[in-house]
Amino acid sequence: xxxxxxxxxxxxxxxxxxxxxxxxxxxxxxxxxxxxxxxxxxxxxxxxxxxxxxxxxxxxxxxxxxxxxxxxxxxxxxxxxxxxxxxxxxxxxxxxxxxxxxxxxxxxxxxxxxxxxxxxxxxxxxxxxxxxxxxxxxxxxxxxxxxxxxxxxxxxxxxxxxxxxxxxxxxxxxxxxxxxxxxxxxxxxxxxxxxxxxxxxxxxxxxxxxxxxxxxxxxxxxxxxxxxxxxxxxxxxxxxxxxxxxxxxxxxxxxxxxxxxxxxxxxx
Length: 268
Prior knowledge:
It is a single chain. The protein is of the alpha/beta class. The protein folds into two domains: 3-98 and 179-257, 3-Layer(aba) Sandwich (Rossmann fold); 103-176, Alpha-Beta Plaits (2-Layer Sandwich). 35% of the residues lie in helices and 21% in strands. The chain has an eight-stranded mixed beta sheet with strand order 5-4-3-2-1-10-11-12, sandwiched between helices. Strand 2 (55-60), helix 3 (65-71) and strand 3 form a beta-alpha-beta unit. Removes the phosphate from trehalose 6-phosphate to produce free trehalose. Pathway: Glycan biosynthesis; trehalose biosynthesis.
């Protein structure tokens, strides 16, 4: 599928679920995750699409639901999925799904992570509702071999506790095995008309279940490449080279479905 085919199919869909990751997709990757912000053009386009007839919009992320809601506060009619599907908020902000957190197991994995961070001080630990993340983007290059060995051992111990460990862009995250972004899309599609065309765009290994689900349901999976993740582990329908290319497509779709004026021509 090329960009023109993508635009024509998505613009013409009678019922559409357009779902997008946040980091590396509508926001550039930040050195520290707290510094990430969605591109204004992406927010403008998603807002217009969310009010278009027959169109549902979802922002699907590993961030907590509070975090993604804060970073997309200008969007008043979108679904938000936090922690890879452990938290789901409907348009308007009402929380319609919240997984039960495995608190005791998380406590053990977090204490283990703290021991690792004492040996590798540049690691940053983040506890979410259903996961523990170790961020290693700030680890100096010369310290990374030792850090990766520590992360591998930590991952093995977390897996023995029943967690799935996702290795994303400068992050290892031990999460509840019951949730992933593909399951989150299934949850949303069950609440939309039968035959809804589902589009999912993401940039990392954590997005692969959703890309695969979109394709399995007859929809479209879009992968945004990066130097860290030049290739997807699943086959997408459309590959784009940077978040700006995806945001440009969102803008054009908003002009076609949502009446947003002044959209640029899509890239060739």
